[in-house]
């Protein structure tokens, strides 16, 4: 079989998969009782990690969700924009009409009017004449494409000046066991079979999967294994599925003319958090952040994806000084009072990096400080309040520096953009 015909066969299989089993499996009526939250494309993350809290919130935000699937990222971002009265629009692009129909139904339940829908392929993006975008989401897509680099370069060409992207790709070590089962199913459920037939075979394999199978020992796939037919199919039967180590991912970004403004959550890629040995930390201190990130991935072994916010090379901005009295901190999602309740008596915050829980030390005074962060109080106002409670201002600045520096790297406390 020629390379081009093999390419067409896999592409046709991918198209058939997402038309038969739109992913992720979603029920539109559920939108009336919950909003799914994640990264990338959380509005406060975009404001901070892409625009570094410098882009005024009143400016229109034009967004492309490139390969939106059934719409988790698009619905989240469009809802955030509507709730905060942010002007702009979200363009949902996908070649699956079935997936787009689900996004439309979900948006209708939420009465969202800031979404538009385009049926088309990322393999032919330029022909769609979509214009330029301040922000592009491409989550869980690149690793399924025939030429990820070409598509990523095409997306870069659709970025407006100063714009950025949120990306997610699969990572290999946290997906240990997946590719072994995929290889077996290539023989047992060949691509030429119908999607429903292939799924039946995969279910039969999973019912009798040996206890020694690595997939049984891997706890990173709750969303896929409990995600109905679409989740199981996407995990085990996707006809084109590759994974990127941190160095692979950064190399892809570099080749596309991009650089990471952060890997999410940044602390997850800091091996010092789980290597307390002083001699090891001394060796880590002399390494650059890319080497540290690669070490963290190799040692933890549970990173099933990499999420990054990226900008064009040379365009990354410096965020405002969080020690400036006029800076305004904001909780990313969890209210400060709730985050403070999670602190243990020893003043550590148990933080989950996937299946790995790491104790993160915080100042004892963070318990009283976090509930005061409301997205409108300045750092100076926080200092005044704590001063009235007996914390001298000279001591406050040390407390604030440690608290913000730690929780920013956990993606829990960010800075507010100007109105």
UniProtKB/TrEMBL annotation:
The cross-references to Gene3D superfamilies, in alphabetical order and at most eight, read: Vaccinia Virus protein VP39
Membrane-crossing ranges are: none
MF term (GO), any = methyltransferase activity
Q: Which UniProt keywords apply?
A: Methyltransferase, Transferase
Q: Which residues form a coiled coil?
A: none
GO annotation terms (biological process): methylation
The UniProt record lists the Methyltransferase type domain at 65-163
Please name one Pfam family that this protein belongs to.
Methyltransf_12
Q: Which PANTHER family match?
A: TRANS-ACONITATE 2-METHYLTRANSFERASE, TRANS-ACONITATE 2-METHYLTRANSFERASE-RELATED
Protein name per the record: Methyltransferase
Organism field:
Acetobacter cibinongensis
């Amino acid at each position: 079989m020629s390379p081009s015909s093999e390419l067409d066969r896999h592409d046709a299989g991918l198209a058939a998969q997402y038309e038969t089993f739109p992913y992720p499996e979603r029920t539109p009526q559920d939108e009336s009782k919950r909003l799914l939250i994640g990264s990338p494309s959380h509005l406060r993350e975009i404001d901070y990690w892409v625009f570094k809290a410098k882009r005024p919130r009143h400016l229109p935000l034009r967004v492309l969700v490139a390969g939106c699937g059934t719409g988790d990222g698009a619905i989240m971002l469009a809802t955030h924009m509507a709730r905060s009265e942010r002007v702009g629009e979200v363009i949902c692009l996908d070649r699956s009409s079935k997936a787009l129909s689900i996004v439309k139904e979900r948006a209708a339940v939420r009465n969202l009017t800031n979404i538009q829908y385009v049926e088309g392929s990322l393999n032919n993006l330029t022909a769609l004449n979509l214009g330029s975008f301040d922000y592009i989401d491409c989550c869980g897509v690149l690793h399924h494409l025939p030429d990820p680099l070409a598509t990523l370069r095409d997306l870069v060409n659709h970025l407006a000046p100063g714009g950025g992207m949120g990306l997610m790709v699969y990572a290999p070590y946290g997906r240990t066991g997946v590719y072994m089962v995929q290889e077996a199913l290539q023989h047992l459920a060949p691509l030429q079979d119908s999607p429903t037939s292939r799924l039946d075979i995969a279910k039969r394999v999973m019912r009798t999967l040996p206890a020694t199978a690595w997939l049984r020992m891997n706890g990173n796939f709750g969303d896929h294994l409990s995600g109905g037919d679409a989740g199981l199919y996407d995990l085990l039967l996707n006809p084109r599925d590759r994974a990127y180590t941190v160095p692979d991912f950064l190399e892809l970004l570099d080749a596309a003319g991009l650089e990471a403004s952060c890997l999410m959550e940044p602390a997850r890629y800091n091996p010092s958090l789980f290597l307390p040995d002083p001699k090891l930390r001394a060796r880590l201190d002399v390494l650059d952040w890319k080497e540290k990130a690669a070490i963290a991935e190799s040692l933890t072994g549970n990173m099933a994806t990499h999420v990054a916010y990226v900008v064009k090379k040379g365009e990354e901005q410096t965020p405002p000084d969080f020690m400036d009295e006029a800076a305004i901190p904001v909780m990313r999602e969890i209210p400060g009072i709730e985050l403070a309740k999670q602190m243990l008596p020893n003043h550590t915050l148990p933080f989950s990096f996937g299946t790995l829980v790491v104790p993160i030390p915080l100042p004892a005074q963070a318990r009283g400080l976090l509930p005061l962060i409301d997205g409108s109080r300045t750092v100076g106002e926080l200092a005044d309040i704590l001063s009235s409670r007996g914390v001298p201002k000279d001591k406050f600045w040390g407390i604030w520096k440690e608290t913000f520096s730690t929780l920013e790297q956990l993606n829990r406390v960010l800075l507010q953009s100007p109105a």
